[in-house]
Amino acid sequence: MPSLKDFRRIVVKVGSSLLVDAAAGGLKRAWLDSLTADIAALHKGPRDVLVVSSGAIALGRSVLKLPAGALKLEDSQAAAAVGQIVLARSWSESLGAQNMTAGQVLVTLGDTEQRRRYLNARSTIAKLLEWRSVPVINENDTTATTEIRYGDNDRLAARVATMMSADLLVLLSDVDGLYDKPPGAGRDAKLVPLVQRITPDIEAMAGASNSELARGGMRTKIEAGKIATSAGTHMVIASGHVPHPLQRIIDGAPCTWFLTPANPVTARKKWIAGSLEPRGALTIDAGAVKALRGNKSLLPAGVIKVEGTFERGDAVVVRGPDGAEVGRGLIAYDAADADKIKGRSSADVQSILGFTGRTEMIHRDDLVLGGG
Ligand code: GLU
């Protein structure tokens, strides 16, 4: 079985019921402090740690003393507005006490699903990691409406993990893993320690998709597992109802591992190279070809010609001066802007376009070289 210490970029998803004390009201600060102590130990490793934290709605409810029972959409959105501030402050204080900086990131479905915004969210979170901050991510519940909502942070966390090429997603939950019988099917159910592949049998163990327990339950965790493992991210489900939940996994607490045969960086590069229809092409000079082969990013200065109609975040083909394909990548500018800044130094971009764009036309993380 793998150990948390084997991984270099870990996304930890924390469920509402772990953080919020429904009976007493308020946030379980001592538990949070035990978790951030575990995060600090991994972070010093050094590893990148990202948090996807639920709890905005539940905390808002408790601060506002709203009655129990289902909330209407606008009520839960307004409750999240109150709760998210408390949630972010608690993470910031608790991580701060461990000498880490928290960076709050609120995302909606479009930020992870539309390429234009995907690139934005990805580079902002990458910058936080470069600064050694801990991104604390939640859905933007106050403005996300039903059609554009994830609704559950299990799948959101899986999307974040694959977007950031994380090699592990940890789902801290109410239960210590997947059992071999659906919830409610009797007491003799046994924990499944390892899932090599998510088959229909495994899905059946999680219960029917239309069951009451489905949302935020085992079913969405299996969906998260599919997203993660198909993109090269391993996943582990473990109980968060204990102090130091990450250290407990390291110490061998019962949990369920979902393994992936792939590597997240390779899987993302495969996605860029193979699954996206290129919308345009850039021709670059010999110096830039050499730079790319030396694992550098593509700067505007090396671009000779821009063809096609594309938007920021679209895939484009990159060709050498002889027209041969050098590779493919996700471009940081739309076609009109790319054309204006081609051949120019990155320092001139601001005066040409009137805004400060990215230094790179295509960042090396978004570039896949092909051919020789
Ligand atoms: N985003 C919601 C919140 O913070 C939680 C969604 C979930 O629990 O999966 O309240």
Give a verbal description of the structure.
It is built from 14 helices and 13 strands. The chain is globular and about 70 Å long. Residues 210-215 have low confidence and may be disordered. It is an alpha/beta fold and 372 residues long. The two termini are 38 Å apart. It folds into 2 domains: 4-268, 3-Layer(aba) Sandwich (Carbamate kinase); 276-369, Archaeosine Trna-guanine Transglycosylase, Chain: A, domain 4, CATH 2.30.130.10. Strands 3-4-2-1-5-7-8-6 form an 8-stranded mixed β-sheet, with helices on both faces. It has a 5-stranded mixed β-sheet with strand order 10-9-11-12-13, with helices on both faces. The structure holds glutamic acid. The site of glutamic acid has 14 residues, from helix 3 and strand 4.
Please summarize what this structure is.
This protein has 14 helices and 13 strands.
Keywords, separated by commas or semicolons:
single chain; about 375 residues; alpha/beta; Carbamate kinase; Archaeosine Trna-guanine Transglycosylase, Chain: A, domain 4; 2 domains; 8-stranded mixed β-sheet; 5-stranded mixed β-sheet; 14 helices; 13 strands; binds glutamic acid
What's the layout of helices and strands?
Elements: E1 9-14, H1 16-19, H2 29-44, E2 48-53, H3 56-64, H4 73-97, E3 102-107, H5 109-113, H6 115-130, E4 134-139, H7 153-163, E5 168-173, E6 194-195, H8 200-205, H9 218-230, E7 234-239, H10 245-250, E8 255-258, H11 264-275, E9 280-284, H12 286-293, E10 303-308, E11 315-319, E12 325-330, H13 335-341, H14 349-353, E13 367-369
Parallel strand pairs: 1-2, 1-5, 2-4, 3-4, 5-7, 6-8, 9-11
Antiparallel strand pairs: 7-8, 9-10, 11-12, 12-13
Helix pairs in contact: 2-4, 3-4, 7-9
The chain binds glutamic acid (GLU).
Residues 15-16, 54-58, 80, 138-139, 141, 152-153, 216 line the site of glutamic acid (GLU).
